[in-house]
Amino acid sequence: EEPVEIAAPLLTRSNALSDIDLIALIGRHGLPHARAIARRKELNATIAHLIRALEKPTLVNTRPPETVTKLAPVKP
Question: What does pTM read for this prediction?
């Protein structure tokens, strides 16, 4: 729950944080914490991809919106 300036050493070096922990921290604290996590040695490739997607969200492939069919209201 600390700002990235304080948490960075733990985020970059601690073996106590699992991949699940790192993903949760990115979700909770966003890009600043993600950037610190990106400096970890032997970072899981999936987490590295997640961080790159956060850095440049326009590069993420998205599927086109699904067609929505509007139904007429049902008369009682």
Answer: 0.71
